Amino acid sequence: MARAQLNLADHLVRLESETDFAGWRDAARQLATNDIPPEDAAWQVDPGADQGGSGLPDCPPGVRLAVPREFVERAETIICHCDPERFGFLYRLLWRLRSEPKLLSIASDPDIRRLEAMEKAVGRDIHKMQAFVRFRKIGEGADERYVAWFEPEHFIVERNADFFVRRFTGMRWTILTPHASADWDGERLAIGPGASKRDAPAEDDTEALWRTYFENIFNPARLKVKAMQKEMPKKYWRNLPEASLIPGLIAGADRATSAMIARMPTTPAPHHAKVQAKHWPKPDDGDETETADTIPELRNLAKGCHRCRLWRDATQTVFGEGPENADVIFVGEQPGDQEDLAGKPFVGPAGKVFDGILEEAEIDRRKVYVTNAVKHFKFEPRGKRRIHSKPNAGEIQTCRWWLDKELDLIKPKLVVALGATAAQSLLGKAVPITRMRGDVVERDDGLRVFLTIHPSFILRIREQEEKEAERERFLQDMRKVKQLMAA
Are 236 and 132 in contact (CB under 8 A)? Predict the structure, then answer.
């Protein structure tokens, strides 16, 4: 029995539901094989209409309608979009594909751009539903089940229901939305009519536990308000138990971050003396002017570096890390407290910011080399804390010997100077980072140096809005680096 009905007078196709893809497909096939153009067909969702029979003529004998499988799959997604014109839009694409078989690969075509935008919108809505559905328990014992209320933008409940069956197979649940409902009794999935929020149960005890959990896993040091609101738009907050905590957590983020930093172990570890003795041989035990043909050999030489006095208080040399064939080298200022203790570059708070932004910029840190202009931690003791102290020009110049050796062995296409100290070491003079940020300076030896800030600068900004803006600027810098890497 046909699922769509056509009024031959005005070519009106009536569909059983908002997601009646089978009905749309049957009607579209009959329309197209009878050469009825898109402008002569209208589409309507009319669940109450008589669906018995079809006014469309049968497909003419010997006439086949061949469309790419890709179109069929994408059309099934677009049917879930809330745009009331989607049925006619899809039929127009089908009509065009008859004479333009490569249409789906033409990214500049307005219809294809619209198709892609609708696909993304449905995909985002499916993802949000999977992320933000919160079940509430009702009943006890044999009557126990879980009910959730969700408000999707598009008609995605039926398409998304299998995900929840797989995820929550062992419990009985119902998801209510304004458009449709999904019910799983442990054995059978049923899709029913929409509901209202009044049909959903009130708050239960599990929501208090969820809020406690959310509050304890919240990391103020990694807070990015704009990114959070992009992933968790405010329109979903009213149905999330943890959302009531968000304004307060955001407001107290700076204070909580300061408290976290204060609790961090900033004094040398108890084994500091043993580590220092292991890594610092006597001054006459080694000669850092020996030749090294590989980065591991150079790193081993650097363990006994006494070129300046900074080695006396440092725990160990913090040498560069990364592949010896890296196309890009990131150069920071010097190790911090955490790097000094770990013996690895960029593992402290600034390193976490750096890693996160590299990931967003789609730069694989495993494929880049990361080092510092100065290889020892310079600090001032302040009580039990060790406070970072900026290297002076003499220390930068002395330690440049090691950086030059790293550049000679790796031979990168690009070097990124993270901050003024790195730029001074690489270029041999002080440069105004604020004014030259984003510039590429070519050295006399042909090496390109990209200038930007050090990620620790972002951590020092107190105003949240200003901090987010600076982080976004640094992200854009890293995206430029990504482009330069490919050049």
Answer: yes
64 and 183 assigned to the same domain: no
Residue ranges in 168-294 assigned as alpha helix (H) = 205-217, 225-231, 246-251, 253-263, 272-279
Last residue of a domain, one of 145, 179, 199: 199
Give the least confident one: 247-261, 353-367, 398-412. 247-261
- Chain length of the chain: 487
- Identify the DSSP state of 304: T
Tell me the pairing of strands 385-388 and 145-149. unpaired
Residues 428 and 283 occupy one common structural domain: yes
Domain carrying residue 178: 133-199
Q: Global pTM?
A: 0.47
Please check whether residue 216 is in contact with residue 256, taking contact to mean a CB–CB distance below 8 angstroms.
no
Tokens 């105003």 belong to 463
- The CA-atom distances, in angstroms, between 311 and each of 21, 148, 274, 320 are 72, 61, 15, 16
pLDDT at 285 over 50: no
CA 345, 351, 355, 357 torsion: positive or negative? Answer: negative
Residue 91 to residue 86: CA distance in whole angstroms: 9
Q: Coil, strand or helix: which one is 81?
A: coil
